[in-house]
Fold each of these.
Amino acid sequence: MAQRQFQTEVNQLLHLIIHSLYSNREIFLRELVSNASDALDKLKYLTVAEEAYKSLSFDPRIDISFDKDAKTLSVSDNGIGMNEADLVESLGTIARSGTRAFLEKLSADAKKDSNLIGQFGVGFYSAFMVAEKIEVTSRKAGEDVSFVWSSNGQDGYDVEQLQSGGRDTQGTTVLLHLNEEGLEYANRWSIEDIIKRYSNHVAFPIYLTYDENEYDDKGKVKSSKKKTDKVNSGAALWRRAKSELTEGDYHEFYKQISHDTDDPLFYVHTKAEGTLEYTTLFYVPKKAPFDLYNVDYKPGVKLYVKRVFITDDDKELMPTYLRFVRGVIDSEDLPLNVSREILQQNKVLINIKNASVKKLLGEFKTLADKALSGGEDAKEKWETFISQFNRPLKEGLYQDFANRDALQELVRFKSTAVEGWTGLADYVSRMKGDQKSIYYITGGDEKTLRASPLLEAYRAKDIEVLVMDDEIDDIVIPSLHSYRQETPGADGKTESRSWDLKAVNRAGADEELGEKKDRAAEKEIRPVIEKLKKALGDRVKEVKLSRRLHDSPSCIVADENDPSIQMAQMLRAMGQTEMPDVKPILEVNGDHPIVAGLKNTEDQGRIADVAGVLLDQALLVEGVKLKDPADFVKRLNRLLAG
Ligand code: ADP
């Protein structure tokens, strides 16, 4: 029979697992048990949801056994099973494109591999760390033939139909032929220990079969008989009372469902009773999942109905911006045979989802408040949270209108007034006098933004400006328009106050910067403005006398409803070719000698050179790429030569 080849990505994954995970070999057992548990979940669902499976008698269990002399270990389940096509599809390829992208990233940065790979479910293939050969015997529920898949993890694999010796029931047996390193796991105590640590809360019973020996007085084995013990606690952890559970229990369960090797940052366990009855257990990881920014990320929340697993692949269970949350929703009110396709329209589920989002956002807020008033520990937790999840929360600002107020209190920015992160409420609490708006600058990296001449007048007036260097700020913040705060007033009513959010690189953001100039001085500079306007023609939308400049001669701003120049440039780079050419407004500093120097000249060549340099240098400091750098250099050199 011809051998089949693994998909290239599987070969890469196998190589990586064997070379970077060896310090954590024991997780192979967690992965095999977790696959067995998934297979049982899938079959259990069919037996309640589909007519054809309802008559199937099904006593779900996972069995582990080993033989030290034969150097084997097996993990067996009576779950959904696999037929020939399933075996090829599941154990010969990697379906998810996000996983493929992840693999590419891993190979490029080999040193970090072992760290990164922990975040990512390595699954079945991890068994090749401890086995020189694996045989998977499987029979699919509802079918009556067994197939065996076998491989040494190097030269592809075989799939064969078994004529005899197949499985009596549906399900899968994974038989490992242990290698040198794997031998230590052919041992009752190490298996029990690993199961207790990683798989104690798997919701199906796990049985371990071992030899119980009797010894004679010389210490020799007198007789030996097979014994089978249940080795996990086997209850759905989320259904147990909080008071019965330790932090260790919660952490172990998290690792089991997330494949993360690290403890979670925190968890929220909620039991709702009343009109709707459900349990949720949510976790926030310490590190953003590897596929956070992939379109086909794997959702982290599983749905159960009365403890029966329904789905772990429904992106609608959480809003997209909370896709980093891991955990379980278990409802008492949904019908067991709810079809996965119509879940999204189900009222019960919508209510549970809404309540869950509120609960999570409330929990994040508590974390933020504790960081302000609490000790180092709380501070560190919050900082970790924000460093990983600030960005998805900002996505929430334009995705989730209903929770916008809560989200506004969570997102953080950099600022000209303080080090580290700050929130909008903090900004407002630092405002002086009767400042009316919240100011921010966007459109470049932090260093460029902090050096922008646009900030000069704000600095001089001691007005704080938020430094928004994250690309997403440019998209999210303009859609926010204003920040609203509600505080309990003296007479028991809530008082609502609101501040406009204004970009300093826009026309209209300079109203609080004071008067332009006295009339006489303005009149004197008018002709210079006209000369510049004429010289620049349609390169600019307008030339104006600036209120924001102190030291620099010029700056550019965008008109109130135009996209910023940087944003337009970014969109064009992303392939938006029909993007109209937005023109900047050039603002000049009437007190600057370069500008004032134009009062007494009518030399058109010189005026054109000065105008060009004023515009191009303003574009340069804002990080905009010049269309004609040679022209800029030529003009500059002419001016320098006098
Ligand atoms: P993952 O579990 O993350 O999908 P794996 O590599 O562990 O990745 O498994 C690949 C696929 O093989 C699973 O998604 C499942 O379809 C199938 N599979 C693995 N083990 C079993 C099993 N014991 N019973 C049925 N199907 C299985």
Amino acid sequence: MASSTLNLCCTIEGASAEQQAAMDLLGKQFLLPDERLAAITKEFRRRMEEGLAADGKVLKMIPSFVTWRPKGNETGSYFAIDLGGTNLRILKVTLDGKGGVTTEHQKFTLTQEAKSRTLFDFIAQCVETFLDDRNLRPTGRQPPISIGFTFSYPVQQTSINSGILVQWTKGLNVPGCVGRDVVRLLQDALLRLGLRVKVAALVNDTVGTLLSAAYNDPSSQIGIIFGTGTNAAYYEDVSNVAKWKGANPASGEMVLNMEWGAFDSDDFTFLPYTPHDIKLDRKSINPRKQAYEKMISGLYLGEVARNIILWLADQRLLFDGRSSEILNAMWSIDTSYLSSAAIDNTSDLSKIQQIIEKTLNVPTSTMVDRRIFKTIAVLVGERAARLSAVGVVATLTKRLELLSKKINIGIDGSMYEHFPGFKEILAETVSHFIPKDKFKNINFSLAKDGSGIGAAIVAMLATQTQ
Ligand code: GLC
């Protein structure tokens, strides 16, 4: 889908003067000029430096203990657990020695009980099911299976296979875990089931994405998730990490997990907050946290749109002032509805009509209502894509020297993969801030399922280098 779709201006055919005035205001709030992005990027860079210098800063820049790069010629089968924002997956990853992988995986939905109490026992049971279903459970005489654990939450890593949970982000909030070593919690749960499985590596999903991209393309330097949440990891020279007190790795470099979703969460100053964002933040389970993530990622964009829709409906500028029980409920607009709305090019906007009248149960909608709905989806998506470029540009300019040669950025996540126009606007916006001769060296690649594959690769590398 061409980026011009998301660049739609906010003029709504057939709108009343009041409706148009409200849409123009939204346009002003959501369409961010390059100068605004430049100012945010400058602050982002400053925050990166701050996070490299000391612990406890808004951008955590967490050392991952991953100091190697895969060569692409490694072979064998390795296991991973991938706990993401939405699902849990157990994987068996087979490396073909030519940069390619095949995976066998099983997906599990977290039960309410797991989300509220027994998360680690639940994960251990899923590992058991996966191994038993495939007859892979090691017996007493066999060596334990090494497994990589992708844990997509901020962890202060203390070694390649230990780390303290700093806080929950996205939708999860299991009590009793913050401040504890999540590998210990998992390893104990595995032991309770008598499973001979050793957690050999703990990786953030962005670190996994980077490593899986690097197995396929050695020029990979950055791994990013634009999905339920957002974050990035990149290879940094250890000499640039003033807070690093450990031994210098032989390679001289280490992957850092930036935890960039937290950007601006301390002072709420630089991002373009609208009343709709503030409302979302106030009612979220983590108010005043993950400010950047809340403007970019799939967990939140539907809710930003819902707040805008209700703001318009309450002024009788949409749906003739009507709402529905569903629309009144927080989180009732899934970001995937925005994806569908943004690409509805039918003459009567029938897909949008379906979403409004069937899914959201609003009794009727006019063409103007549907056009407004589409424009809201486009505006929220465009702002997310352009703000995403801020993090990418800040990370690239931090290591501008790398751009004299080809570099690959591995990206995974539903926003990147599925939101119409997101990829294109992201790349185009980045191109406005990076000199042409350097921009041509950047390759953006989809690292599908990279988080789990990468964890298996890190488990392999960690086991080989021990
Ligand atoms: C959230 C988590 C982070 C993760 C990201 C993408 O921001 O804090 O660890 O990488 O989501 O899943």
